[in-house]
Amino acid sequence: MTSISESLARFAFDLADDDVPPAVRRQAAHLLLDGAGIAYASTTFDFARQTLAALSSFEGGDSPVIGMPRRLALRDAVLLNGVLVHGLDFDDTHLTSVVHVTSSCLPTALGAAVAAGRSGREMLTAYILGIEAAARLGNVARGELNQIGFHPTGVIAAFACALIAGKLEGLDYERLVMAQGIVLSMAAGTREYSSDGSSSKRLHPGWAGVCGITAARLAKQGFTGPRTAYEGQFGLYATHLGKDLSRWDLGAASRDLGSQWETAQVAIKPLPACQLSIACIDAAIALHRQRRFDIADIESVEALVPEHAVKIVCEPIARRRRPNSRYAAQFSLPFDVACGLIHGRFGLAELERHADPQILALADKVTYRVDPDTNYPKHFSGEIIVTLRDGRRIAHRESINRGAADNPISDEDIVSKFLANAAVANVPTADRIQRALLDIDALEDARALGDLLSQCPA
């Protein structure tokens, strides 16, 4: 019987640029643009400077870092770029796998393509390969990794990144199989960061890239790994989901490769918050805009959320109501909903209000209930029910989270988001970068893209 590693390796080895439909390539280019914009905005925050300082203490190299003039060794650059794309938690998510695909696949594809002297077209194909692999591997778990305590991006994306790096390194089929087996001993990432909003989550996508590149280089030299990295007795799923693999659809890991493109299902975030909160935030903003009540008249607020949101953005409720940082605020449903109700917007600036007494006072009135009508994980639904002192109840529901494939934001909105994020960092060449990324298939050498992306803001 063909193992999952063998199926994915065959797909990766055989995948040609022209095998990917033009519409999928266009969507992928917009995902790259979105990721790059977030990376630029991240360069203005302390966590970016801290990561750069730490990684600069190691031996240098010539790999590009987005928005920074400093060149680093390949794996250090991939790690830092992952931190930049994911650091604001504004990056895209493949919903059913719950994997942040661009924050892991973009740094890996960029770093490996630059190192190997590949074309922009080859880089984009490898990036899409990574998304397809990560989405399917995550689909097996259907969001349960988060509930057990693993961060799917840190764990699942490492395997996708091994395939990206292996593809761009020119590995043959057998070595692509081995790379996945090798990375099984490296993939990591737990959700303990959520206990206090610590910043270690930001490392997970880039670390997945580091693991993937390392595994691919080892496989290239003949190092071996198990062929049953996923379905084996001590493979990924048995160790992370439990020994009874009959509960899980292992076929989802390789089903419809090359005919159904999961890249088209990636959700771009319209707001800098956890995907599981976006529908509720939008519902709160909609209620604010209806202007049917005063904030002072609110008796209570109830949020309906998917069950999987409870551990991630709702509990422990007392701590969620008092986020101790802007980062913790992004994973606080009470804060996010209160902010939306009061201000009618939710952006990077609003996160700086995490200690605002008015928002926190309203957050104390926010409770939650598991949504009985959710379509999770295909869609991350949300509903807000406001009860006023006079007994009136006013509600708004978002059945499909904005940005999902069935409720997408437009290409123009993606460009606007990129330009707004680039403006945070005063990037002088934003228009040129936009054109280069959206026309990446025409780039003869990914090194030119690396040079462009690494230009320091004005």
TrEMBL record:
It comes from the Bacteria. InterPro entries: MmgE/PrpD_sf, MmgE/PrpD_sf_1, MmgE/PrpD_sf_2, MmgE_PrpD, MmgE_PrpD_C, MmgE_PrpD_N. Gene3D superfamilies: 2-methylcitrate dehydratase PrpD. SUPFAM superfamilies: 2-methylcitrate dehydratase PrpD. Residues 272-432 form the MmgE/PrpD C-terminal domain. Residues 6-243 form the MmgE/PrpD N-terminal domain. Transmembrane segments: none annotated. Belongs to the PrpD family. This is MmgE/PrpD family protein. It comes from Pigmentiphaga soli.
